[in-house]
Amino acid sequence: MFEFDADDIAQRSSTGTLPTKTQVDELVAAAHARYATLEEGVVADYIPILAEADPAWFGLSVVGVDGTAHEAGDTGIAFSIQSISKAFVFALVCDELGHTVVHEAVGVNNTGLPFNSVVAVELNDGSPMNPMVNAGAIATTALLPAGHADERWQRIRDGLSRFAGRQLALDGEVYRSESFTNHRNQALARLLQSYDRLAIDPVEAVDLYTRQCSLAVTAHDLAVMGSTLADGGVNPVTGERVISPESARDTLALLASCGMYERSGEWLFEIGLPAKSGVSGGIVAISPGKGAVGAFSPRLDPAGNSIRGQRACAYLSRALGLNLFASDPQPLVSPSALAHEGVRS
Looking at residue 95, which CATH number applies to its domain? Predict the structure, then answer.
């Protein structure tokens, strides 16, 4: 169960725009200061290179749909994007093939099981169920149209770079470390192949997925990438349209229901934002029409989510009015007033 202590923060309405720049700067700084000394959780070590991360690192960035950045802490430290890449590759594939094709090929329902579950695939007749679990992400990556593996990789890298507004680099150390330990993903790909659910060779699919997870980003990059989704597919920094409004909408809907794996319901209940996490400690949380939060802190809870990042997102969701489900009530209007304005009851 998620544990948050942001109940003492006044809940702003989700309607309207972000507060002033000074207010957002102050609230981001306050969120960072509030959780910077929190020492709960452990650094991931099942991918050996991730265990070398400094547990003290903590970066927090908010980028609005106007491109303005509000930041505190270690927002310039690079880390591997890991599972957060799933959201943006899904968006690219959706933009290429359309809503229906991806829905039918991969699915959009939460498995209710861990992100690397083999059982979930078997229980659902080989369906990966959704693109945010590893099996679904591998299947989604395999769907991206390309003539060969190098072209498909270049399209993935270029697409995620356009979301970030800068050229993203592959972290070779992470890629090599992950390639030596991704046996479960290889098994998932073979299982998908046995059900005829994989569009390309399983070895190629897993290698591409491993590479996309090894792209290096910062907390600032995540906030820009998330804000691109918040702004209907237009990068708020570069002004480039990366994907269509429909693909941005589909991606946010999927993140709301599946982005935090089997904890997605709790996350939506507590924080009210489409979001995605990665085991390197990154989180991106998006408020459509307003902007996005990019957080980075390597200390994780048992589900693989950054503890400081979750707490900071909860704080900012309330303080900045990001929660999709928080709105101010409309004032009651009497029937006589409506009649006076010429509106029939």
Answer: 3.40.710.10
